[in-house]
Amino acid sequence: MLVTILTITIILLGIIIVYFIFIAPKQDPMNKAEYYLKQNMLNEAMDEYRKILDIEPNNFIIHNKLAELYLQQEKLDQAIVHLQEVERIDKYNYEVERIDVKRNLANAYYLQNNIEGAFKAYIEIIDIYPDDIEALYHISFIVLGQEEFEIARRYFARLLKLKKNDFEIHFGAGISNYQTQNIDEAVNQFRAAVKLKPGSEIANLAIAFALHKNENYKESISYSKKLAETTTNIDVQFISKRLLAFCYILEGKVNVGKKIFEELLELSKSSNMQDNILLILYDLGFVCLLLEQKILAHDYWDELNNIEKGFNNIDGLLNLLIKEIDKTSDHEEGFDMSAADYIGDWTSNAFPTNFLWNICSLKSDDIIDIKNIVVKGRISLPKEVDDKGPASNIDTTDDAFDRIEKFCRIDTENFRIISNRIISKLGYKVDDILQTYRESDGVDFLAKTETDKTKILIWVRRWKDTKVGEITLRNFAQAVNDIKAESGLFITTAELTDAAHSSLKKLRKVTVIYPEEINNLLKGII
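Request: output the structure for the sequence above.
Response:
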């Protein structure tokens, strides 16, 4: 009997040992998942991980493993769910590091085209790891894509302290500096970009434009001429040659510039580039005026007027020129304008303010409210960076980024005072404060230049969540005429619509001061 009991006991122990040593491990979901992974059977492995979560829903290691497998399969929605669960559980170890989770989540948002989610996630990364290059890289370009140029400029400066000799970073830094009127630094960054990629057409165009804006016409000629001779892209050839022509003219070599414009007219006509034909006919009229070839200027402008009446006020310019040629009509009292008086405006406005920005393809199609994210999340922005290295973060309330926000929020009386100081910085003296339709929107001034006492109408508008439309600019132009001012200055915290930008070209008396310029003018005031 004893022998029988011992035999049964031994058999049972053997079964138990076999089960726990050989059978049970094979049935364990974790082991089965690892086995499937070795066989590259991802779906089967994921099924086993999900079984573990059914029993242990807060197992952060399994959530992270599933997230990584979903990322491998480019199933971003599912990956994000599990990464968010890891963050909710808020436990980490050597297998699951916080920085890796946040990077995976940020990259998943970015690949999902959830730019707002990605921006928030990258910001969280640098709040914990300030020198994380990947996060700073994405933040810089996201902010740049949203046209928040001042903020972008600071992030790029910080990024450049951590990583040099990267074409995209140097180019992005160049654009952000160019758009914030830091032209010397823009030249430096574009120069570095061209050195890294000598064949980059956009980088060569960018440095040529920056040098032109910096009045370094000789070096701008070198870049634009080389690009015009080597490019196979007809649009790039047109832009670079037109810039080249203006540089020669501004250097005093008007005949050389005229020859280039004539070549561009021939190129535009042979390629049926209708918009370019109009533009070059307009240019050639002014070049001929510079050379005192009034008859030829008339012929070019008459051809332009016959194609499209009203192009850049061409009908008005043509009438002025005809009077000068005929010398038959007496000047009306106070009339002292000639077509040549507009040459300065022509050279100054040869290329729209945002021309380089619009052709560099960095603007994001998805618009997010960067400012609102910063204000609500109390996210910090970088200080200015010097040669000693990146500075620590500061709160947005002390940052240049917040100046326009403060400008828009202050009470009416202080808004008028600060607007007056802005106008003073621009070189005008306020004579009178006019009645404004809605005082909460802005303030209207009648001012004079400090030099020749020319009368100018100035509207300052602190608009948010809207854009300045074409009708607003036309109404302003009419107000300038009604008050018999020589010109008008429209200062706005809001961007212009495309239609407004187009109409601005025809409103010769109207000049717009854009948000980026206001931000710079507010330095030392707010």
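The first helix runs from residue 2 to 27.
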